[in-house]
Amino acid sequence: MNANNSEPIIVAFCCHYCAYAAADLAGSGRLQYPPNIRIVRMPCTGRLEVNFLMKAFEAGADGVLVAGCEEGSCHFKEGNYLAKGRVNTARQLLEEAGLEPQRLRMVNVSAASSQKFAEYIREIVETVTGLGPSPVKKMEKRTTNQEQTGVMP
Amino acid sequence: MIVAERKTIPELVEILKPHKNILVLGCGTCVTVCLSGGEREVSIISSALRIAFRVQGLGFGINELTIERQCDNIFIEQAAEAIQRADAVLSTACGAGVQAIAERFPHKPVYAGLNTTFLGILEERGVWTEKCAACGSCVLHKYGGICPVTRCAKRMMNGPCGGSREDRCEVRPDRSCAWQLIYRRLKNIGQLERLKEMEPPKDWNSSLSGGPRVLIREDHKV
Asked: What's the pTM value of the predicted model, to 2 decimals?
């Protein structure tokens, strides 16, 4: 992500069955919403892990929006409830790490709610613009150490 | 299994501040099962630490590695190279794992990333409860399989204390009274007679009160 870009960048994890369809509908309906959003399509917000949210912020996202189905109408019954708990856990971690938890938000939208989807995007862009760029961006350039996972070679 | 929970990020930042190149070392056994120190949690804690370091303007390098078991030398071997390269190790194993790593690498600072909490079971998704205090002299056969040492807040061997309300503990009203559970269980298995026997004071010598314990098995020693 561009560290010099003054426009905030919001990563939106959208459920395939609702928010992603709502975003599609918003496009078809020529609804205007800020172009700061980078949509990641999820099979269900239940696939989301705390890790994904942390990685997005680590990579320099100014805000993250998680958009799942309305409560009680998850295609996989409970995915959005799982996501809710994970978003809350990530918010707690972000706060501990020194980032404003308001940068991360979960919303529930139906596939038909394109207006609502556009509204949520406007809201988070407004919130994040108010908070300013993520301080993580300041040191965007990684230190010499390469991050590694798994067994060392 | 051993249940643990992570330390807070500000606490970890404070611990790790004197070092520049940190290895966050996970354990693939108990702490993976209780979702506090396995590969996924290592990744989450490392991410949070990187964010915290950048927010505070501290230049740190963090590497991640998870091995099968930190309390076993054979598995520690796999982490040796990564540990040697790091200035310090943040171990997300239980207290035993942290100490095993520290003993194996006498010149390397090794810190605990978790608070080891108790020996327990997974009650339901996301909920763990304590079941065993590792007292070293099991009495479960006398109490229908419900441990008064662990589950009674007053450790009563001859209960109940008389303070419980309905089936709730007097000390922690959100917990069941262990003696209510013992009574019900003994009734269900037709062993209520056991409650008429007076249990003498427990010998705590076999517990941690007698100093750190060692188990030696002649049949397995080389």
From this structure: 0.90
CA dihedral for B60, B63, B68, B69, sign (positive or negative)? negative
A52 to chain B: which residues are within 8 Å by CB?
Answer: none
Q: What residues 109-138 of chain B have any CB closer than 8 A to a CB of chain A? A: 126
Is the CB of residue B81 less than 8 Å away from at least one CB of chain A?
yes
Q: Confirm whether A52 is domain-assigned.
A: yes
Q: How many structural domains does chain A have?
A: 1
In chain A, the percentage of residues whose pLDDT exceeds 90 is 84
Could you give phi then psi for residue B117, rounded to 5 degrees? -105, -55
Query: Are A97 and B78 an interchain contact pair (Cβ–Cβ within 8 Å)?
Result: no
Tell me the per-residue pLDDT of A6-44, one tens digit each, with 9 for 90 and over.
789 999 999 999 999 999 999 999 999 999 999 999 999
What's the pLDDT at A120? 97
* Tokens 């996924």 sit on residue: B40
List chain B domain ranges. Answer: 2-118, 133-210
Residue A145 in this model has a pLDDT that exceeds 60: no
Please indicate, yes or no, if residue A4 is contained in any of the structural domains: no
* Parent domain of A98: 10-138
CATH code of the domain made up of B2-118: 3.40.50.2300
CATH number at residue A61: 3.40.50
Q: Check B9 against A96: CB less than 8 A apart.
A: yes
Nearest by CB: A136 against B46, B51, B79: B51
Query: Residue A152: what pLDDT?
Result: 39
Q: DSSP states of B40-99 as a string?
A: HHHHHHHHHHHHHHHHTT---EEEEEEES-TTSHHHHGGGHHHHHHSSEEEEES-HHHHH
Average pLDDT over residues A58-75: 96
- Mean per-residue pLDDT, B21-32: 97
pLDDT at A52 over 90: yes
Residue in A with minimal Cα distance to B49: A97
pLDDT exceeds cutoff 50 at B36: yes
Going by C-alpha positions, the residue among A148, A59, A142 that lies closest to residue B59 is A142
User: CB neighbours of A22 closer than 8 A, spacing ≥ 6?
Assistant: A14, A67, A109, A110, A111, A112, A113, A114, A116, A117
